[in-house]
Every structure is written in C-alpha cells, then in structure tokens.
Amino acid sequence: MPCFGRVLSPKSKEMKKETKIDLKKALANKNVSEAELARRLGWTKQYLNKISCGRDNPTMEQLERIAESLGMTLHICFE
C-alpha cells in the first residue's frame, strides 16, 4: 500500500506544512477530491480543508483514518 503522512514535533509549523503537502499529494494520486474524502470520513468539507491547508493539526487517529479512507498506510518517520 502507498504511504501517507509524516509526523514532526506536534507544535511545529513544519508539521502542518508537511501534512498539508502530503495530504494534497495523496488526494491527487488517488484522484479523490477533498469533498469526497470528507464524505468518506463523515467530516465537514470545512474541517478537512483546515487540515489540508495547514490551519489545524490532525491527531494520529485522524491521520490513520485519512490514510485508510484513501487505501493507504500511514508512515511515520523520526528524523
């Protein structure tokens, strides 16, 4: 399965930026819109947009749900 996600310091601006980039790439690779992913997750489009634009930090559980909804695995890298 393809991988999605990266976790840095939970308070890091870098984490928001990396999550934003990875989520946008995952959506493009799977040809899924934010609206469709939000529907699959049972979330509002507005909430998913906050994550995809880097305005909110998702929890680990939320990242796992996103990855699963896209048929991907969550990959965490400590560097």
General description of the model:
The structure is a single chain. With 79 residues, this protein is mostly helical. Helix content is 56%, strand content 5%. It has a two-stranded parallel ribbon. α2 packs across α3 (45-52). It is globular, with a radius of gyration of 11 Å.
Q: In terms of topology, how is this protein built?
A:
Layout: E1 3-4, H1 13-30, H2 34-41, H3 45-52, H4 60-69, E2 73-74
Parallel strand pairs: 1-2
Helix pairs in contact: 2-3
Features:
single chain, 79 residues, mainly alpha, two-stranded parallel sheet, 56% helix
Give the structure's gist in a few sentences.
By secondary structure, the chain is mostly helical. The protein is built from 4 helices and 2 strands.
Please report the number of helical segments. Answer: 4
Cα distance spanning the termini: 22 Å
Give the DSSP E fraction (strand runs of 2 or more residues): 5-15%
Largest sheet: 2 strands, parallel
Taking all residues together, what is the mean pLDDT? 81
Q: Uncertain spans, ≥5 residues at pLDDT below 50?
A: none
